[in-house]
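QA checklist item 7 of 12: single-chain prediction sanity check.
[x] sequence parsed
[x] length recorded as 278
[x] structure emitted
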Amino acid sequence: MNPKQSLGVIGAPIAHSLSPLLHGSLIAKYDFPFTYSAFHVENDMLAEAIYGAQALGFRGLNVTVPYKKAVLPLLDEIDEFALKVGAVNTILFSDGKITGYNTDVFGFLHSLAVENVSLADRDVIVLGAGGAARAIVLAAKNARANSVRIYNRTYEKAVALAEKTGSTVLPEDALKSIPDNAAVINTTSVGMHPHVGESPFPARLFRPDCVYIDIVYNPQNTLFLQHAATVGALSVGGIGMLILQGILAMEIWSGKKIDIQDNFVALRDLLVQALWSH
């Protein structure tokens, strides 16, 4: 019998990650020869963590906040799509090489499809300018959004992302109103556990004709999403994206196709239950 290979997720903070539960469930269901764990990695130890995992015979890693851009120089190869996004959230160790992929765009767009939400012809406002924001900007463009504007507390970061992605920047003083039928997408960690009393967007700018999307999944119902519910607006939380990007990552590591319809509801119920029990 072949020994099991290690998988894991690296980030900081990482204690409340649901990735081990998600991937553990897939590993058990399909009897994949893997184990999956969460690893807290400090910024100055990122290279050691990546190379150490390779030396220890890991099969792969998920990469989360704040390292989706920082890992790029440590990789031997980067998937063409991840290169376009400029951020990596999945690493494969194979044949002595470290290869980076991005499954966030796939996860995000498919999570919207599950909820019957479309970004086509909507003016999109992306909150944040980090690694996740890059993926979401590209996803919005792929989904034929009417326009994509970036709002970030650090203006220079928003400008840098806008220049790289062919988007525009939304200055803070321009945040007085939002267009009809807009989509506002939070890609920051604002509102994530334990800072559940925070929202990245002013409550006065929530409107019933717009859609509000939060990629944060812990808590399931962030303050951002609560504001959307208060005005009766359509909203989408982050659990679907987590599940769907995770399924694609497991396909990369295992080399096996995993049926989304066969797994989505059960995985969502599992993760929601875990969040409620926290």
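[x] summary fact logged: The mean pLDDT is 96.
[ ] second reviewer sign-off
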